[in-house]
Amino acid sequence: xxxxxxxxxxxxxxxxxxxxxxxxxxxxxxxxxxxxxxxxxxxxxxxxxxxxxxxxxxxxxxxxxxxxxxxxxxxxxxxxxxxxxxxxxxxxxxxxxxxxxxxxxxxxxxx
Amino acid sequence: xxxxxxxxxxxxxxxxxxxxxxxxxxxxxxxxxxxxxxxxxxxxxxxxxxxxxxxxxxxxxxxxxxxxxxxxxxxxxxxxxxxxxxxxxxxxxxxxxxxxxxxxxxxxxxxxx
Lengths: 111, 113
Fold this sequence. Notes:
heterodimer; A: 111 residues; 5-stranded antiparallel beta sheet; B: 113 residues; mainly beta; 4-stranded antiparallel beta sheet; globular
């Protein structure tokens, strides 16, 4: 059974810092990995999608990497801003035909 | 292109009542999935619909049901509401099943009192 873990569970940093959020999964037989952002009480905003054949994806200040063999993905946020404060979720898509979510990392960036 | 639209955004219901939530997927997307999010359990998969047929189902009691219409819009129904059903219900759309990714709506916040 696929299990997805995210570390740390919470993170509080000053503005301007570069951050690394970690996601690990137990079954390496995945098709895709997707990173989402969720603001309090809101839905999920898709940030990056990494297909199993890819090793990384970039969008603006965000960079996500994928190492299938070790069951890990990292989300790198460069030059963090208060507007980046949110919960970040990773989710994997495997042979169960559904997204399996991690528990999330709650990020707070203070001025 | 409009995103995934869920209605209503907020609902307050009494124990024992039933509720229906609606989801309109992204135009051209034909697969709709539903997820429940609670502080204790996180995001859990409820079910997926494609071509008006349920393709996949999570581990939820039969009180949770859904359907999909010919225009790909989907509804989710919860009968005999319990306090524990209070949650954020999220709908996700994909072009087809097994696409490997999804886009989510803003969710419906259900509170059962």
